[in-house]
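Write out the 3D structure for:
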Amino acid sequence: MGSMVEFTRPDGKTAPGYFAEAPKPEAPGIVLLEEWWGVDDRIKATADRLASHGFNTLVPDLFRGRSAVTPDEANHLVQGLNFQDAATQDTVGAARFLRDRGAPRVGIMGFCVGGSLAMLSAIRGNEFDAVSTWYGYPPAEAGDPSKITVPIQGHWALEDQFFNVDGVGTLEHKLQAAGNPPEFHRYAAKHGFYNTGEPGEGGLGHYDRESAENAWRRTVEFFDRTLRG
């Protein structure tokens, strides 16, 4: 089980986060970004799961203690989020927190809007050694994905009602043209296929066990390859 901590952003401000520590202190690090629901029990459990695989994991609390249980509440939180600030301050401060604890390399991973922000963080800076995004990518006007030079993995839902899967192909071609071919996986599932929320709970209920576990195994293998050694 992890615990809440505070870390320092590049601008000197402090921010809260959930830190799950791996058994070995000088483990590789992962900055984990939540879905639009906020830092809830599910994202904390995901951080704990990454820690059990040997990755020190920090979840920056982008909504500063607020969370949502309905799509309307979640959308309100996302609309109030300064993505530029989060991508250049919160995620960078989180990466440095992990490096200060001995992480030789740090990856970034996110779900849904967190996946978009994970990619945006890699576009805007060089703090990260690998990126894994789950069913989320930033809009074209947010940044040029060809600026991502580190290994990138993506997990996409073919029946995604929020992020059109056609955009995944466009993104894939841009990365390939830039000389950074991504490792993209597509699943016969709906958006949020890793989220175990029950049907009717805030519009969730799209959990697909086979897709979720295949994507998880691939993610752990990806970070093992890119962050260790």
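Residues 199-203 have pLDDT under 50 and may be disordered.
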